Structures are given as structure tokens and as C-alpha cells.
Request: fold
Amino acid sequence: MGIRWQGLGLVLLVIVFCVAIAGGLIWNRSRLIPPLAGRMARLPAGSTVVYLDVSALRQSGLLGMIAGPQVTEDADYRQFVTSTGFDYRNDLDSALVGSLQGESFIVAIGRFDWKAIKDHTTRVGGVCKNGLCRMAASTPKRFISYIPLHHSMIGMAVSSDEWAVTKLQAKNETPLPEPDAVVWIGIPGATLAKGDALPAGTKLFAQALSAAKLVTIGLHPVAEKSEIRLVADCPTETAGGGLESQLKGVTEVFRKYLENVQQKPNPGDLSGVLTSGTFSRQGTIVTGRWVVGRDFLETLLGGRF
Reply:
């Protein structure tokens, strides 16, 4: 009888162990994706952040404008899609991209075949250990590292540091405000002071905004057109009043310049958009608004400036 109870106890122990494993797997797959604020907090402090609500862009038809041919023609991207079956046009729902001191960090939500991605990593000479994976990037001496943060969320880094993705596991206690637009950019003012690579016509605006603590720019679809909204958080009300005057002044200078060269603002390019700006201030917060049409968005999102 003792042997029978020993055998029964062993069977029960195995059952309990299996139930615990199954329960853990079910919990991991059913738990909620962390909110956007929580994902923002993973990005290193001081990052310039771009947020894309890919689901909303897909529904609005704007997704196809975002560097479509350039992305699909990239050899590394084609190889990745072929190898893993992942295609951002169908499988990606949102992406946060942070840039800081030559490193790029990504927190993305979507549908991932983790086994296929891991197999692709090892197939191209990468390695996986302790849940972290890395492989060589197309640029020499740079690496792509990644980690599954949830069954529907991936953390990635592109850096000269082979395991830079581990920086996403720390929590930034002072993250940027939560994005409120389908395309959103958060930029520390100090970064705008180094805007040598900005498109022509925007450098004067960048110089004016560089005094702000933080600048956010969002794309908000409005009926058949869209609106670009700028919010600049200034250190003092006096600084806010000065920035509002500067932005209005820069807009007026640009309008007069076009008049002097006998050129009418074109709604399909920066000349039409920048001259349409309106500005207001409430305390230390300065707001700017520009109405944009689809032609301009195709140029902007297609990276053709």
C-alpha cells in the first residue's frame, strides 16, 4: 500500500508541475501589454523619441507613404522578411524609436514568430543566450541586439555595443510625455541646437526652439487633411513669451522672403506649410499648428525633403 501511495504521490507531483508550467505559459501569453507610458520609460533618459501608431497609419492609408520603396528594396529587410515571415506593413502595430549618442533603441508591438526570428539570428551568424540575442548589423562594427519583452513586444538596439538592448531593462524615472498622435516626435531642446542636417527652411525654427526644455511634434489626422501640432515646454514664462514671438517672427520673415522672390507658398512643400503656422502660449507652454494636405504628407513621410 505504501508503494501505491508513493506512486500516486509521484503522479500528483508531475500533474501539479505540468499545471504550473501550463499556467505560467498561459499567464505570460494572456497578460496585458504594458501601457505606452511604461514602454516610454524603458528608453534611456535624454533620448530623441519617434513614435508610430502603425495600426492607425495602416487604417488611414498613410502607412504606405513611409519610405515604402526604400524599405522594401533594402536587401537586409528582404532577407529578414523571407526568413521570418515578418512584414511591418501587416504585422507591426506600434513602434517607439529612441536615439541617443549614436545608439538606437526600439520597443515595438506586433505579431512575432519568435522561433523563426531566433532561427534567422543563428542562420546569419548571430547568437542567443539567457533570452538575449544579437547579430551583426549591415554597418561594420555595429550590432542588432533584441529581447522578447512580451509575446507581442520586442525590445531592440542598434549599437557598437553587442548587448545594448540590456539598457531597455532599466526604468527611466523621467520619461518624455506620452505620445498623443499617430506620428510623434519628442526632442530635447539641446538636440535642436545641433540641427545641421535639418531640411532647408526649418533651421531658423530649430534655432528658436533650442531654448525650450522639450519640444514635441505630432501628426493629427483631421478630416481630409492633417494637422501638425508643436508643443514647446519652456523653462520660464518669459522664455515662453520670447519663443512665441520668435516663431511668429520667423514665419513672417519666411513669408516676406517668398514675396521678394515672387514665389507663392506651395501647399505641397515646406514653403506652404511653414508660412501657414499659427502660434499661442499658455504660461510656459508654446503651441504651434500647421494644416497639411496629403501631397505634403506623401513628401514628408516618404523622406523626400
Observations:
- The domain at 183-301 is CATH 3.30.980 (Threonyl-tRNA Synthetase; Chain A, domain 2).
- The chain has a mean pLDDT of 81.
- Residues 181 and 218 are 5 Å apart (CA to CA).
